[in-house]
């Protein structure tokens, strides 16, 4: 009985290892972009039209996006914390598209554009 248990355990471990190797082989290099844009334009107006354009252009650039929704941030302006209402996105791409996203957000949202954080990762579809 001990021998059968040992053989079964070895088989299960070998299967688990093979499954992990197969999963690792399916992964492809990818870049993750965390993008935060303001809900308002620099002049205080609603950024809704810019958001619609951002989403459409992001689909063309990267194939899609995930909208995380409303977020809140803050920065120090003249020694005081200035709160800001934002919308956050995660955008995946086969290469680092940070520069393209920055140029796009500066054009669409004016001012500084967006906060963009990118890091390399792996993806499985």
Give a count of the beta strands, DSSP E runs of length 2 or more. Answer: 4
**SSE order, as H and E?**
HEHEEHE
Structural class: alpha+beta
Morphology call: globular
Proportion in β-strands: 35-45%
**Into which percent range does the helicity of residues fall?**
40-55%
Number of alpha- plus pi-helical segments = 3
Largest β-sheet summary: 4 strands, antiparallel
Would you tell me the overall average pLDDT?
Answer: 85
Textual characterization of the structure:
The chain has 125 residues and is α+β, with helices and mostly antiparallel strands. It has three helices and four strands, in the order H-E-H-E-E-H-E. Strands 2-3-1-4 form a four-stranded antiparallel beta sheet, with helices on one face. A hairpin with a 2-residue loop joins strand 2 and strand 3 (80-93). The chain is globular.
């Amino acid at each position: 009985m001990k021998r059968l248990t040992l053989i079964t355990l070895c088989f299960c471990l070998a299967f688990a290892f093979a499954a992990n190797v197969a999963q690792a082989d399916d992964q492809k290099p990818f870049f993750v972009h965390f993008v935060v844009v303001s809900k308002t334009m620099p002049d205080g107006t609603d950024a809704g039209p810019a958001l619609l354009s951002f989403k459409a252009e992001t689909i063309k650039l990267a194939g899609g996006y995930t909208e995380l929704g409303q977020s809140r941030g803050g920065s120090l302006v003249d020694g005081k914390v200035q709160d800001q209402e934002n919308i956050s996105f995660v955008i995946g791409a086969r290469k680092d598209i940070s520069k393209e996203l920055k140029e796009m957000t500066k054009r669409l949202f004016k001012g500084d554009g967006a906060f963009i954080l990118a890091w390399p990762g792996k993806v499985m579809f």
